[in-house]
Amino acid sequence: MNSKFSPIGKLVQLVDNRNIDCKVKLLLGMNIKKEFMPSVANTINTDLSKYKVIKKDQFCYSPMQTGRDETIRVALYKDESAAVISPAYSVFEVIDTSIVIAEFIMIYFLRAESDRYGWFISDGSVRASLDWERFCEIEIPLPSLETQKNYVKIYKAIIAKQKVYKDSLDSLKFICDSFVENQILTGNKKRLESYIVQSDLKNYDLSTSYLRGISTAKKLIESKANTNGVDFSKYRVVKANEFAYVADTSRRGDKIAIAMNQEGKSCIVSAIYTVFEVKKDSGLLPEYLYLWFSRKEFDRYARYHSWGSARETFDWKSMCDVELPIPTIEEQKAIIAIHNVLEERKKIYQQLQSSIQPLCPVLIRGVLQELNLESVK
User: Which pTM does this prediction carry?
Assistant: First the structure.
């Protein structure tokens, strides 16, 4: 064994504290993203005294489905208050924090490389498990404590920034939702029919080649359709600030696929889509209407008012029958400005999220390079 590496089994030890007095009520599970989450288990008549207690800086480990999911199910618990987890899970902790710190171990197991290795060494049973003894054989790099702390500090900085953005998203969303709810309670509702008009502009001259699809996330997306030999002259043109939606609401996760063209140029969509625009000088801003459509309550409304047998549709008449409160233009502009900030911060938050997964391999690569340099010296 390389002296700069150590089997995980020599650095950690199992802990088996049970919730004997049932004082701990918070029951958690663990997902394949190596995160704790509220348990989805049915706990009616369940004896929680047999469940395991997990405390801050302890790990939860599940040996099951490692091969099937190609993921080592391990998570580091960071909350101050204790929680309970299934007795099927193992709980372990660092033996000596002067040798290795828990966060550094967690960074190592957040890498896709670690998951692939766990899949490779898992057994050949139906569950493709990675039992505790085999898990303990996995070797991890062991730099100095100071080096570990430096890399953990970098990781924590990204996580902290992500949390700041997540908190700001929650606050901005609360403002938007509260405004709309207040309008519903106090404003006069108007039928949408008076404010929108259907568009039937076709791409007859083939002047528009920018093809888009529509997602249930209320965004225009790259079309997944096979366009070989397709006659685009029959496709519908969606101009800037116009809307397009798919009338068929079946098999879409109880959501309606509708989007506003906010891309600054015209695009074309399938001829089966419905395209419409907000009437000019009607007192309704397209961005405010988009905000209304973006609410999960509108998804439920559209599904409830969809009709049909094999395929349920939310047709043009149903769209025209939608009622919504329409505040003054000044109020619409104010809430739109907040909503735009919310959407922009969502993008930044998603970028931060996507940077975390590749960050861990980079950090461990840096550790390995430092260890190699030390051995050369």
Answer: 0.67
